[in-house]
Design a protein that fits this description.
Layout lengths: L3 H27 L7 H18 L21 E3 L9 E2 L2 H8 L4 E7 L2 E8 L2 E7 L5 E3 L2 H4 L15 E8 L2 H9 L11 H9 L4 H6 L3 E10 L7 H10 L7 E4 L4 H11 L7 E8 L2 H6 L10 E5 L5 E12 L4 E13 L2 E7 L3 H7 L6 E7 L3 E7 L20 E4 L4 E4 L6 H12 L11 H9 L16 H5 L6 H15 E3 H7 L7 H10 L4 H6 L2 H5 L6 H12 L1 H10 L4 E3 L16 E4 L9 H10 L3 E3 L8 E3 L8 H9 L3 E2 L1 H7 L7
Parallel strand pairs: 2-11, 19-20, 21-22, 21-23, 23-24
Antiparallel strand pairs: 1-6, 3-9, 3-10, 4-5, 4-7, 7-8, 10-11, 12-13, 12-15, 13-14, 13-18, 15-16, 17-18
Helix pairs in contact: 1-2, 12-13, 16-17
């Protein structure tokens, strides 16, 4: 029996693990980059599943209850007829055998690219849609037609729908990197390059990237049916599709088959991060059904990462804008994934303590998803390294902070140069003041020569002309471009200004909420108490305290007062405050592709500008779900119907609430 104390400890751990997993999933699915390896992600995910099983508690934000993230591109979107679920996973061959039981299975490579659904009509490729978030994907038909090995016409006239993986082979990836200008940035790995290539707006770019497609599943073929999945793959082969390599297995032959695949890892030309075991009997597989997240007729087998041994030379301490000082391990160079690595982030003091790192320790390192070096183990565990008592940048005293979840090292000095550079970098960023051409490197130069000490200095650079034009890489033209960019940025809005100030936990969305609630009155926001701020929708106690604390700081107020004379604040992002708050108190969820708005963010901004709220998930508080495919069987549609929430098309939404999309 689990005690209440143990259960609370489990909940605290779940709350620690969930945001890490979600951030990693967001980076992988939405931004085509990796921040941790499969090994790291799987370990955390498995830990979360065990915590949920043992405690009987599943938090609403848990990645075990969701499927991926939305595709972020300007390509048109389309909802899949039924959700494309991800696969459950294991690292145990014995579990694969147990899963298969007495059935026959197909063991194939788990290719590491971008899943694409192809639809053929009358023998021609009619549509290609990416997996996206499992419910809605991006339409990439023009790009798919440039894939190297895809048949544009087939000898089958009925409607054919199949799934497969778009990939860039290792040899093509290396050739593409070799063709880049000498000294230029290289692409990091085939998977990232493939994702960016398939989601290109210009299909000519896709054509240059040598993308290939390997089919792994037949969805439908008119009225044609097959008893076994291998027959489906043979059928697709006969139509001209290259299909995933597989072996037919029984429980007793599985270990040998896994070993055979493992021996080929070093020479297999297609990026892969494991294997897939699929029940061969189609009818039997369908009878197993699905869970909320996984199909029950297949399971993924994940490889572990290669670990190289080396010796730790030292820990380097890297300061950031927030004052956080991160430990970075410097070790004797080792060969991993074809390149030499000698550094790895340790992330925080808790991990440093957990690994018991010390100079000269023998450590095991691996390359997370072939990109980011990480420390897997410390074999010596001398624990001799201690955090520095002074900041490596400003020399001021450091302090250790313990959130209860992790210990971190901070520099509390508000004038630390590391903080200043990042502070100004946020201020000039695209979602804030949007001063074009002011990179972090340029800001560092301007701060170093004393041209920029506070926000207002960015709008009076004319006074520093001689210093700036004499900088390396600068001249009169660059200086004039900078002045013009600052002048353009000075015509801004209150939400942008609030975002730019770097107030804790205040991003663009919260800034817009504050602006609406206080009717674009900056003075009211500055004077608001914590209690008044907590009355603002979606502003909790931590955010409210952060806002109040910011405006209670005399230096913050002085710097803002110095800045305001240089700005021309418009009343809203569009320059015009909506005449009515007709959607006040109403909450909408948006899903699927749009016709009257360029993207969901534009519709979300319209709803918020009219006083409404745009939420990410359907709940009992939702006023309506906006979906142009009101008849789809998506999870959001199903939830809306179950709760009795109206499902409106864009047309119905605009007509019902008398809204014009062009205003």
């Amino acid at each position: 029996m689990i005690t209440d104390g143990e259960k609370q400890k489990m909940i605290r751990r779940m709350r620690e693990v969930i945001p890490i997993l979600k951030e990693a999933a967001k980076a992988y699915y939405q931004e085509s980059r990796e921040i941790m390896s499969n090994r790291e992600y799987d370990a955390l995910y498995d830990e979360l599943v065990k915590l949920e099983t043992d405690s009987g508690i599943i938090l609403s934000s848990s990645p075990t209850q969701t499927v991926g993230y939305e595709t972020v591109t300007n390509l048109p979107k389309k909802a899949h007829p039924s959700p494309m679920l991800s696969q459950n996973k294991t690292k145990s061959v014995e579990e694969l055998q147990s899963f298969l039981g007495t059935q026959t299975g197909l063991l194939s490579w788990k290719m590491d690219g971008l899943t694409v659904v192809l639809t053929y009509q009358n023998g021609e490729l009619a549509e290609a849609v990416t997996r996206g978030n499992g419910e809605v994907g991006a339409i990439v038909t023009a790009n798919a037609k440039t894939f190297l090995n895809i048949p544009l016409k087939i000898g089958f006239r009925e409607t054919l729908v199949l799934r497969g993986e778009a990939v860039i082979r290792y040899d093509d990836f290396e050739e593409i990197n070799r063709s880049l200008p000498e000294g230029g940035a290289q692409y990091k790995n085939p998977r990232n390059l493939c994702s960016g290539s398939v989601l290109q707006l210009n299909s000519a770019v896709t054509a240059d990237r040598r993308v290939r497609f390997y089919a792994f599943s037949l969805v439908s073929a008119g009225g044609k049916s097959f008893a076994a999945h291998r027959d489906e793959l043979d059928f697709l082969n006969r139509l001209g599709f290259e299909t995933v390599e597989y072996r037919t297995v029984k429980a007793e032959t599985l270990p040998a088959a896994v070993e055979a695949f493992e021996r080929e890892i070093g020479t297999y030309p297609i990026p892969s991060d494991g294997l897939v075991l699929l029940m061969d009997d189609v009818a039997y597989g369908k009878s197993l059904g699905t869970t909320a997240k996984f199909p029950r007729d297949s399971i993924a087998f994940k490889w572990t990462d290669e670990i190289a041994r080396t010796r730790l030379k030292e820990i380097e301490w890297s300061a950031s804008r927030t004052g956080l000082i991160n430990p970075v391990a410097i070790f004797e160079p080792v060969e991993l994934e074809g390149t030499q690595v000698s550094r790895a982030s340790v992330h925080n003091l808790s991990i440093l303590d957990e690994l018991k790192l010390g100079k000269g320790d023998e450590i095991g390192v691996y390359k997370a998803n072939m990109i980011i070096p990480q420390i897997a183990e410390n074999y010596t565990r001398s624990g001799s390294i201690r955090p520095p008592k002074t900041c490596p940048v400003c020399g001021g005293s450091t302090e250790i902070r313990d959130s209860g979840e992790a210990k971190t090292l901070y520099c509390p000095n508000p004038d630390c140069p590391a903080k200043q550079i990042k502070k100004f970098d946020l201020f000039v960023s695209r979602t804030a003041m949007n001063i074009d051409g002011l990179s972090e490197a340029t800001l560092e130069k301007l701060i170093d020569i004393g041209a920029v000490k506070e926000y207002a200095d960015l709008f009076r650079l004319e006074m520093q002309r001689e210093k700036i034009v004499s900088l390396e890489g600068f001249g009169e033209k660059s200086f004039r471009n900078l002045l013009n960019a600052a002048e353009t940025a000075s015509h801004t809005t209150l939400p942008r200004l609030l975002t730019a100030l770097g107030i804790a936990n205040v991003g663009p969305a919260t800034a817009r909420v504050l602006t609406r609630y206080f009717e674009s009155d900056l003075d009211r926001i500055r004077r608001a108490s914590v209690q008044e701020l907590q009355a603002v929708p979606d502003v909790g106690p931590i955010v409210a305290e952060g806002i109040a604390a910011y405006f209670a700081g005399s230096e913050n107020v002085r710097e803002l007062d110095a800045l305001l004379p240089y700005l021309k604040l418009e009343s809203a992002e569009s320059g015009k405050e909506p005449a009515t708050q007709s959607l006040a108190g109403l909450t909408f969820v948006i899903t699927g592709s749009l016709e009257h708005f360029p993207n969901r963010e534009a519709l979300k901004a319209k709803i918020e500008a009219l006083g409404g709220k745009a939420a990410g998930a359907v709940s009992a508080k939702t006023t309506a779900l906006i979906n142009n495919d009101a008849a789809s069987n998506s999870t959001k549609n199903q939830t809306a119907k179950k709760l009795g929430i109206p499902v409106l098309t864009e047309e119905e939404f605009l007509e019902k609430y008398q809204i014009r999309a062009d205003l």
